[in-house]
């Protein structure tokens, strides 16, 4: 095995191995578990970065791969640049989240179960990123679906169980649709490997137009749930009963991004130009546009902090969908870049939600008055992330929005401009009030003078990660022009994705 | 020596448990346990070798005692037979290991060992039978030992369930035997290889097939003839439940498949295959809905078997057309039987662990189980993955093939059934998993009864089976290939 | 109508009679006996088939089958009767109906 | 000029205030950062003077930043640096209960304002524009008026959205993508609307009067003197310079500009607070700049002249308005406003365009530009612009009147701090700048205009509207009761006032609703769950039937018959 394939297999395998070890250790050996978890996460980071290096070296058509025979397609992994981006995002943020989670969960029960399934989820997300074909993608996709369930219902309360049920009610039928779509597609088109610019034979558009449209619908139905595409978004706010690290890494990064990443793979690397020819990507773009507005409007009305963030995620995910559905390399780059950008920003916000709920027991936006004085670092990080989501430069959110906006004109879809504009205003309308409350309103007396003398504003294992992710979000926007930034990486990828 | 073993493999595989069974009976409970374990362990390489041999050279024929047909008994091992032998042997090993811990050396259960080994041998004999009358005998052997095992606890409920099971089983066998008689009358042979050449789709042939089908459907507990299964499977001791659900129902199903796909082929009549498909689909829905209704874990698992059996019957409408769809349906159906065997035995064993430990299996009383018995909860969850047909699991591979066959043959509605069935399975699996991951019940008087962790062999055996059903979903390709070795002409795409 | 057909018809009739008994009689002994009648019917058919080609020596194979069948039936009847007796001792009745579908609280023992 | 300075130094210098902002965030450097604030804009001022013409792309920064210090940008950079320095000097240390907080945002806003003068690519311009505009919210709201802060924020956010959308189109065009016959004009419209908000164009001016009134004087000075000028710079940068695409917009823009010029004056004279009057004066004055740009749009050949006019007018108005806002505050704080009024007279006259003031020069340049207006507009502007000057004079008279007659705060307890010497120095600096800047402007066009304004003809042209205005003011003053009826007849932000009040009520109601919602109990079992449960019960009853021997055996018989029948048929 070359180092490239070792890195590739290691990137997917390391989290699963970590999970096995964590399960084997049992509930009570906290120190050992933390060490193993951190070591596993660090190893994963090394592996995904190595895989990304290999992908870049092999780009655009000599990617390292590894696989075994299974069914008619095979179960195979491949480190390409698009996948490596998602894998690196998931891997790096996992390491940070692990630190956070160790702090957050220090008083919670069932830690072995929590960290074990958490690792499985990350492994699946990386597996999704590095899948070489739809079958492999689907396998990891469903593992992710299942492994998330115990995390959603972690607290075991009736509300949590209900949230878990809602989650499954959406996720499992979607899996069925996805399976049907994948099988059908393989029947019509033979084994479908992902390939930049689409892998379907253009002749199929004239021989099987109806089937291709139906398959597209099935596939998008399948991945659309995780991508929280309207009207498949209902589970995401319900899943907010999960502990903060879950909301942070899974419901802002791994799980939901797996959905949009799937959309990207299907639209760009399966259908390619056929999608535009058949008119399905246009419909998808319209749906994404609607979801953006819809999610933002719903977010406005949420007082529950995490729910507001969740609806914001619903809207933001559709930026990615919208980007990849537009016929322009610039827009595609915007969508792909937003995958990384939104990850850093939204994880910061969910980290904030967790830190705030743990430290001052505030769960609702209306309880945030003056919080900036009590938890200045936390709320600074949050504010930075929030303005980034709104699209205020130089935070990363602006970069993706910029590429999307310019790209939409390039693609000849000017209506997207209106969506972006309205969305920006709405984003501001639901995030700025939080910032306003935290910094501009009169705090409770006990908050007015900051954290208790000589004490940090919270558990540093939680504060440091969220400051780091906020800094990453800022850096990704500020240094977007650097060759290795997500935005530049995405532009490189997009150039191959849109060769026609 | 090595060559002799290879030549005698089909017989040796069967002889191993059949030799151990009387020994275990004669030497009593004290020796029954090690004998069973040794037999189970020794069976592994034999079954594996047999499978490898078949995959290399194709069908093996073995004339018992050198008699040959028509009076002698021939053993025939093709791909699907080798697969069934392999899965029986593997499940058998883990059930044996589990039973060691479950029954301990209590006198009351000393008959478990000989009966179980006997059942094991009968099943293998059934899978390797080359003629339809011998299949009848094996079917009866399987039924009798299974009924005895169900009644093993001698409790009222178990005895009644056993009786119910027995009557159904005998009736089913009689239907089958009647069909055998008609076939012999019409075609003059019971040897399947011969029959394949001479059987015709005339009225007698089809009537015989219809009677045999009715009997076998009854013994496989296809809806609406599942009336005997839930009580029998849920009241039996858990290792027995595991074997019943995992293997025994597959025995009669195996014969049915042999008859339809291998022997009758084009002589089979399409109307009946649709009937079987429709009943299978109904079974999927009905079994799942009933499972969802259950408050006891073992009842739920038993009804899950009712539902999962339904998938097997979807094979019939899908293979009738021949072509690539038939091949996919064939591999899918057999693979489903295999993965369901692993997963369902794991589930019953897990349920047994719970029952043995807490003295009850009321689902609502099992809240927070993942805290008290993490391995058991995990087992149930992993086995549930196969039940739902989600990847990576054998159930997924099977469903993939079935969906493929549905679309390929233009009968997309079966694909809808397969997908919907998976969702219903999810409903009942998560009905259990939810509480497992949830809080402990408010009144924790059960906790007082908790005698502490179960023996690791029990938890381990169940978990191993569950993991096995998952591994099939990733590393299942060799098995898929084996199923197609010397496959019936109808599915292999060869004109007979 | 040939001899074989006659036997087949008679055997089938017996089979159905047995089936009817099994269906309608709740008492276990009745059910067991009904099954015996059914099996007798099957054996009838088999025996008749042995002479299906008139004027030749009867085919020995169906006879072998019937013998095997009788052995099987005898042993299973014995088993069923033993089971029925045990049920009677345990429950005080020897009837079987829907109400007896019950789940045992403590099967593990 | 020192030519060894690389161009990117301009941006670096402009961003020096960021260091101050960062310093404010850290406890250990807080005090030092606050002290350094007034000097934070000086590097930018130096850069405006020293960094040579040229452009450079910083490709690693964001989406690639194009630093380009052209003549226009240089003027705006210098103006902004000057105004911000004065504002920072004036900003009293006790301007806010949270001085460090205030200083930090002040520096951030300053950095954005200065930096946007040095970049010309849409993304970077937007970046700094947003940095400036959003940070200013903190400064505006430090005055304590939440409603005004909200008005500012809403308009700003909407403006940013317009802007970013307009710049998407500009950005695409920069990449060589033709936006097409629909999006092209839409882009121009969006850019106009976005910057229109910043300069208080009629219809988009709702935030300006309330915000200027609510903001501390230093902030108001920065807003009126420098930040809103960023809107002018934005228009100069992103309108289709001298292209056909903009021609159709020309007349509309001219019309809007004229409307603003008169509307601002008309509504302004009815106001009762000096700062609000100044705000309306800004609306009116920006109207004149808009007219110039409109002429440039309508007549592509006039574009360069229009830009020159807009630039010169911006400098003139920016310095004068900043001086007025600060002077107004000094007057409020001073024991007696009368001596201050003398100082206020200079910028007031300048705004009115009195001879010998910068206003005279600026108006002349403006006139040169509007002289190129197409056909009928040319004559209309000839006639209307002097009338606008009459209006401005009236406004200034009203302003001075209000300052002069303002009574000390009614509540005895609330004492205002006396102006600091540093603050007064800042004001004097601004006054000096107003007095001399345009006269010593290095650019030949302006110098020519300055000389021309001293000719007898132009002295008269500049004088009569002022005189007419003064006469009108005197008449109004003497009329007393007749005119005082109009005072306060329109609230600040006039037609927008009901909307702003409505927004206040909305927020109040939302807060109340949230309180109610959070105490509501969770819903019980949903009807769907109830239905599901009863269905399951029904299924259970059916299953009991299926398990009965009779049913089972019947089913068996039925199946046998069915299969046999099928067999017979086959």
Q: How do you describe this structure in short?
A:
Helices cover 74% and strands 2% of the residues of chain A. Chain A is an all-alpha fold.
Architecture overview:
The complex is a heterotetramer of chains A (500), B (496), C (109) and D (570). Chain A is an all-alpha fold and 500 residues long. Chain A has a domain at 279-500. Chain A contains 20 helices and two strands. Chain A has a two-stranded antiparallel ribbon with strand order 1-2. In chain A, helix 4 (111-129) packs parallel to helix 10, helix 8 runs antiparallel to helix 10 (244-271) and helix 16 (376-390) runs parallel beside helix 19. Chain A is globular and about 70 Å long. Chain A starts with a helix and ends with a helix. Chain B has 20 helices and two strands. Chain B has helices at 2-57, 79-103, 112-128, 132-150, 156-187, 192-198, 203-220, 229-235, 238-264, 270-293, 297-319, 323-358, 369-372, 374-388, 394-408, 412-437, 445-449, 456-475, 477-483, 489-492; strands at residues 60-63, 74-77. The longest helix of chain B has 56 residues, at 2-57. The model of chain B has no long low-confidence stretch (mean pLDDT 90). With 109 residues, chain C is mostly helical. Chain C has a single domain, classed as Helix Hairpins (Orthogonal Bundle), CATH 1.10.287. Chain C is 71% helix and 0% strand. Chains B and C meet through helix 4, helix 5, helix 8 and helix 12 of B and helix 1, helix 2 and helix 3 of C.
